[in-house]
Amino acid sequence: MVKKLSVAALAAMICLPGVAQAGGGYDRVADLERKMAEMQKMFQMKMEQMQAEIAALKAQNAKLQERQETAAPAPAAPAPADWTKRITLGGEVRMRGYDLQNVWNFNDDADWDNWNVFRLKASLWAKAQISDDVTGFVKITDQTWGEGVAVAVPTDNLGNKMFLDNAYIQVRNLLGLPVDATIGRQNLIYGTGFVILDGQSQFASTSIYFDGVKLRWHITDKITLDGLYMKDQENNRANNVNGNSGDDITLAGGYLIAKSCPVVGQSEFYLLNRHDESIKKDIWMYGLRLSDKLANGFDYSVEAALQRGDAGTAITGAMQDQDAWGAKLNAGYTFKDVAMSPRLYLGYAFLSGDDPNTAQDNEGWDVFYGGWPQFGDLLAWKYVNIGGGNVLNNVYAYNALSTTGGEAAYSNFSMGTIGVSAKPLAKVKADLSYSMLTFDEVPAGTDDDFGDYYQLKLGYQYSKNLSFAVYGAILNPGGAFAGAGDPATEFFWESKVRF
User: Fold this and answer.
1) Are residue 116 and residue 56 in the same domain, yes or no?
2) For FRET with 376, which of 62, 124, 175, 328 sits at 20 to 30 Å CA-CA?
3) pLDDT tens digit string along 182-203?
4) Cα(332)–Cα(347) distance, integer angstroms
């Protein structure tokens, strides 16, 4: 269309002068027809050249595009290092404000065991998934009991000293077998913590680790057997102390867990050994625990154990035979269709005491590693091994067979408990309990009434990571503590964030 218009316009320009001279007899029509034919021919040639050039350009562009498609792709932007995808980081910050009165005695006039202090604990941890079957875990922690408290040498859980709280390697399918190995510094918790929970009870439950090796054999998908070899205390590295007998404290043995058993729910069997070289204590414990939580709201836990072996002694060096037993029972019922979902529960714990009439035997329960916090914080403070300053020594030598200073050396008591827990608000939990405490064995002429123990716990789960809590406890002394009639009390508030 463009070509035709151009030719017509050019022809019009040429024809206009010719029209003006048409009467001269010159054959202008023929001349114009000739010129237009020549011009049309020239335009046709130009158009053909242009079409050829366009075709050549299209062909060249197609070749370039084909080369780009077959060429190697351009390098992508550098991806993050692969190891960063396998690292998980986390931590915890916990702040408590404490008021403790008469922690080790029942006397308001003695203020050396009255504390009013902030307790700050912070932890950072990292987990590395090195491969599908290999994991590394490291956790560091620091705790302070008040700012600037004078400590000659910064000590774990007292001064501003970071300590290695956990550090272990976990290997699954060891040697191609259904066996997992956890090697290094690790926490151990079984059941309700009756015999194994607190590997470092002298640190008031800030850290609960052991150093050692745990092998877990997956016998079936519901039955596992743990083999343990752990150090509670390494103390001197050399073995030439105590007449070349050493001074380490070691935990070893096996712990079998069978889940979903008919009738009884979960069954646990254990054979454990605690060896304290410094007093030649070598105690074997045989135990059983049954537990279940039924759909109808009923739950229970029943555990009992016997202790046999060489008790040792921290007083004369004479050997005694260990002949003790202990039990812990809990049962509760949750009203699921009632407002606040209240749970009523009963509990009973018994730890045998040493019979003063059998000098060759020791019937006193050895705490093993069931210190903090299974019977409540305040009662644990009462059993802390601090020597003669503890009022329990007025009743019996409760710490005679404990060489670890600060250990919650539970023994020689029975504890019956009744309590109720509920959810008064969607994110608030409350627990109130009363316990009656008595001693199993007391010297002649001493009352066996330990006292009355009240505990209240309130927890508020503000969000997934942030929580608040309040705890209060009162321990009123019984007739066993004649002349010491002031109650021991504990109160703390807590804020905790985990990330």
Assistant:
1) no
2) 124
3) 999 999 999 999 999 988 867 7
4) 9
Q: Is the pLDDT of residue 341 over 90?
A: yes
**Closest by Cα among 328, 441, 348 to 392:** 441
Q: In this structure, what token pair is assigned to residue 287?
A: 């135990």
Domain check: are 209 and 164 in the same one? yes
User: Does residue 73 form part of some domain?
Assistant: no
Tell me the CA distances in angstroms from 102 to 74, 134, 415, 430, one per residue in order: 75, 48, 21, 26
435, 451 in Cβ contact below 8 A? no
Same domain, 32 and 92: no
For residues 45 and 90, membership in a common domain is answered with: no
The confidence score (pLDDT) of residue 97 equals 96
Predicted TM-score (pTM) of the model is: 0.81
- Is the per-residue pLDDT at 79 higher than 90? no
What was the pLDDT predicted at 276?
92
Question: Measured between alpha carbons, how far is 193 from 408 in angstroms, rounded to an integer?
Answer: 13
For the chain, the domain total comes to 2
- Rounded Cα distance between 451 and 402, Å, is 24
The amino acid occupying position 150 is A
> Residue type for 310, please?
D
The reply to whether 482 falls in a domain is yes
User: What CATH code is carried by the domain that includes residue 334?
Assistant: 2.40.160.100
Confidence category of residue 22, pLDDT binned at 50, 70, 90: very low
- Look at residues 490, 415, 408 and name the one whose alpha carbon lies nearest to residue 451: 415
Asked which of 28-32, 385-389, 410-414 is least confident by mean pLDDT, the reply is 28-32
Q: How far apart are CA 280 and CA 249, in angstroms?
A: 10
Assess whether 38 and 172 both reside in one domain: no
d(CA 461, CA 164): 29
Please state at what angle helix 2-20 crosses helix 28-70, rounded to 10 degrees.
160
Helix (H, G, I), strand (E, B) or coil at 32: helix
Which residue in the block uniquely carries the two structure tokens 């792709």? 73
User: Cβ(330)–Cβ(346) under 8 Å?
Assistant: yes
**Residue span of the structural domain in which 139 resides:** 83-498
Domain assignment present for residue 72? The answer is no
Whether residue 238 sits in one domain with residue 89? yes
Tell me, yes or no, whether 46 and 102 share the same domain.
no
Banded model confidence at residue 299, pLDDT cuts 50, 70, 90: very high
Q: Per mean pLDDT, which range of 33-42, 439-448, 460-469 is the poorest?
A: 33-42
**91 and 63, same domain (yes or no):** no
